[in-house]
Design goal:
There is one protein chain. With about 180 residues, the protein is of the alpha+beta class. It has one domain: 7,8-Dihydro-6-hydroxymethylpterin-pyrophosphokinase HPPK (Alpha-Beta Plaits). The chain is about 25% helix and about 25% strand. The strands form two sheets. Strands 1, 2, 3, 4 and 5 form a five-stranded antiparallel β-sheet that branches. It has a two-stranded antiparallel sheet with strand order 6-7. A hairpin with a 2-residue loop joins β6 and β7. α3 packs antiparallel against α4. The protein is globular, with a radius of gyration of 16 Å. The N and C termini lie far apart (about 50 Å). The structure holds adenosine monophosphate. The site of adenosine monophosphate has 9 residues, from β5 and β7.
């Protein structure tokens, strides 16, 4: 049913003339540093691609990364995926949180080790600063574990607040980091 209705970076809640809800291109970041990390990410991706309202379009390679902030903890595996979804941003957040709970994530301490973490990084061109949902993800431009895989799958995608491409942001972060 989506033929001709999918629009790049379409903000959500858009409805086509015939009443069918358009899909939005969103970016979700995944990370795991407890248990069988690769398996956790694979399982989360299987749950995310629900065959109905969320479908994964592109997946970055998996990278092992050093934890940023929080207590001393093990290395993470991270990746990012582009999804197409007919959900609203809050609905997508709920779906991500359901997957975290289903895979046994327990929130013990802020930025602590985790079986699986799913963050919405971008949602079309949406800008949202609700208490429990901030989009674009506020720390995505400071994080190599987000920008490197995102530059791999969507280098030309434009950050809706800065107006700069992901490739530019990744290059700026690398320049600052060396
Ligand atoms: P974390 O423990 O890092 O998974 O953070 C989860 C908390 O961040 C939840 O309470 C969410 O409501 C909140 N949050 C705010 N913005 C986002 C976002 N873009 N993606 C995922 N969680 C978010």
């Amino acid at each position: 049913m989506s033929d001709g209705l999918v629009r790049e970076n379409a903000p959500n809640h858009e409805v086509a003339a015939d009443g069918v809800r358009l899909t939005t291109s969103a970016i979700v970041g995944l990370g795991a540093n407890l248990g069988t990390r690769e398996r956790n990410i694979e399982d989360a991706l299987k749950e995310l691609d629900d065959g109905a309202q969320i479908s994964i379009v592109t997946k970055s390679t998996l990278r092992e990364t050093v934890p940023v902030g929080g207590p001393q903890q093990g290395l993470y595996l991270n990746c990012v995926v582009e999804v197409r979804t007919s959900l609203t941003a809050p609905e997508l957040l709920s779906a991500c949180q359901r997957i975290e709970a289903a895979l046994g994530r327990v929130r013990l301490e802020k930025d602590g080790p985790r079986t699986i973490d799913l963050d919405i990084l971008l949602f079309g061109d949406l800008q949202c600063s609700d208490v429990d949902l901030k989009i674009p993800h506020p720390r995505m431009l400071e994080r190599a574990f987000v920008l490197e895989p995102l530059a791999e799958i969507a280098p030309r995608r434009v950050h809706p607040v800065t107006g700069k491409s992901i490739a530019e942001h990744w290059s700026m972060l690398r320049a600052g980091a060396t």
